[in-house]
Amino acid sequence: MTSATPSATPTSHAVVMGGSSGIGEATAALFARSGAEVTITGRDEKRLADAVVRIGGKTTTHRMDATAQDDIDAFFATVAPIDHLVIAVSGAAGSGAFAELDLAELAHGFDAKFWPQVRVLQAALGRLAEHASVTFITAASARAAFPGTSGLAAINGALEAMVPPLAVELAPRRVNAVSPGVIDTPWWGRVPQEQREELFAGLATTTPVGRVGTPEEVAAAIHSLATNGFITGMVLDCTGGANLATGR
Ligand SMILES: NC(=O)c1ccc[n+]([C@@H]2O[C@H](COP(=O)([O-])OP(=O)(O)OC[C@H]3O[C@@H](n4cnc5c(N)ncnc54)[C@H](OP(=O)(O)O)[C@@H]3O)[C@@H](O)[C@H]2O)c1
Questions:
Q1: How many Cβ atoms from other residues are within 10 Å of residue 118's Cβ?
Q2: Which of 77, 105, 123, 195 is the most buried (most CB within 10 A)?
Q3: Tens digit of pLDDT for each residue in 15-29?
Q4: 13-237 sits in which CATH class?
C-alpha cells in the first residue's frame, strides 16, 4: 500500500483570488479556521481590510486587479509557495436574451471572469507546490440551459471544459471547479433588495432544496475538493439541484 500525500496541513498556504467578499471570503475563512495561512486578493483596499478582520487566523491581503497582467505578474513574483489556489473573481456582464445580446458586453464578461482565471493560473504555475490544488469557480449556467444565459454558459462552460485536460497536464497538481447555483452574496447587491427577495423566492420554488444557497455551502464544496488529494479533473455542482429542475 502506498501512503497518501497529505494535501491539507496546518501549515498549508491557501491563496483566494477574490477573497474579500462572498464565496471567496467564506472559502478563505474556512481555510483560516483549519489553520492554513491564507492570502486574499481583491481590487479594493478597504474591502480587503474589512474582510481580513472577519476572516481572522493567519490571513494577509494583497490588492490587485485580476484583469491586469502586470498586477498578476507582480503578485506571483513575490507570493510564498501555494498549496491551494482558489480563483473566485467575478464580473456581471454577458447575460440576456440571445437575440438582443450585446456582443461587446459578452466580451467584457469573458474579460472579467474567463481571462482572469486563465491568466492567474498560468502566472501561478511557478509558485504552485508539487501537490497543490487549483479550484476554478464557474456557474450552473454552464450546463443548465436557462433561457437568457447563453453568454454566461459560454464563459463558464469554457472554464469547465479546461478542467479535465489541465488536471492531466498539470499533474500531480490537481485542478477542479465548483459550479454554484444562485448564492446569496454581496454580488447580488446590484439588484434592489425588494426585487432580489422576489427573485430568490421565485427561484426557491423551482429549486429542489427549496432555497438559494449560502457562500458557506459553496466554500465547503471548494475546501472539500481542494483538500482531498484523490480528486482531480472534477466539476462539482453546488446548486441545490436547480440545474436538474429546469424541465428541459
Ligand atoms: N453569487 C452567485 O449567485 C454566483 C452564482 C454562480 C457563480 N458565482 C461565481 O462565484 C464567484 C464568486 O462570486 P460572489 O458571488 O462571491 O461575488 P462577490 O461577492 O462579488 O465577490 C467577488 C470577489 O472577487 C473580487 N474581484 C472581482 N473582480 C476582481 C478583479 N478584477 N480583480 C481582483 N478581484 C476581483 C471582489 O473584490 P473587489 O470587487 O474589491 O475587487 C470580491 O472579493 C464568481 O466567479 C461568480 O461568477 C456566483
A1: 17
A2: 123
A3: 999 999 999 999 999
A4: alpha beta
